[in-house]
Amino acid sequence: MSETKNPSVPENTQASVFERAIAFLLDVSLFISLCFWLFYILVKFAGWQPEDAHIQAWFAGFGVLFILYCALLGCGGRRTLGKALIGIAVVNKDTLQPLGFVKSFLRALGYIVGLITAFGGFALALLNKRRRAVHDFLGGSIVVSTREKSAAESAVVAAMGTALMGMCAFFVYYAFFIAPSAYQKMLVANADKELERIAQVQIYHRVVYGSYTPDIVRLGLISGDPVQFQREIQRNLKRRGFSMGVGRDGFTLKAVAKDKKETEVSLTYTD
């Protein structure tokens, strides 16, 4: 006996690759925005100073949440926000029925392949009649349209999808191979701020003792909390590369940040 088809989804009405791209990017944008805004709030207003392990755990955690989001809203007849807005749905490739959680979870895991290959996993949908990407083969699914679209709407979706896919592919390449990450920039900024903190203590030393000192230990002692003073230096600056040159009318601080490029930072102060 044949299985019942889902009457709400027209058979053989596969969603276009462009519709799928826009829906996916809407969902990804939602999570990326949430991830970065929460990170910014914690660092800017809550005073969080994350270490490398904290950053990795933070983004890994949001990656897991995104997979669960796609898995839970990709089964049982539910849809993610992006798919609902575009008017598409994920169904079983054979019965056109909604996926179960296990297959939906496997399908969501397949998104990882698409992302780490700069959307190469999605490109597979351009090479087969049923427009199945890597994650569709993992989940035994196809993506179908849930409402009819006019020719004009389809043309707009195609144009937007092409532009967004091209932009995202370039962004992934740029982010991974060219630009320093926001975290790496933050490490350099922290190094600059650390030099400013040391400079403030050096200036205080001049006010109290009448001269600048080349002794970093002495600066720690007059900072009020020598242990914390050393901890901040170790947290934000490389051990090697730090130097402090002083003269009668000023001083120069040089150090190396803890980013991957080991960026050199410096500060010069004159009376």
Write the layout of secondary structure elements.
Elements: H1 17-44, H2 52-72, H3 81-86, E1 88-92, H4 101-116, H5 120-123, H6 134-139, E2 141-145, H7 151-177, H8 182-209, H9 216-222, H10 226-236, E3 243-246, E4 250-256, E5 264-270
Antiparallel strand pairs: 1-2, 3-4, 4-5
Helix pairs in contact: 1-2, 1-7, 2-4, 9-10
Give an account of the 3D structure.
The chain folds into 2 domains: 17-177, no CATH class; 182-270. The protein has helices at 17-44, 52-72, 81-86, 101-116, 120-123, 134-139, 151-177, 182-209, 216-222, 226-236; strands spanning 88-92, 141-145, 243-246, 250-256, 264-270. The longest helix has 28 residues, at 17-44. Mean pLDDT is 85; it is low at 1-12. Strand 4 and strand 5 form a beta hairpin. It is mainly alpha-helical and 271 residues long. Helix 1 crosses helix 7 (151-177) and helix 9 (216-222) packs across helix 10 (226-236). The strands form 2 sheets. The protein has a 3-stranded antiparallel sheet with strand order 3-4-5, with helices on one face. The chain has a two-stranded antiparallel ribbon with strand order 1-2.
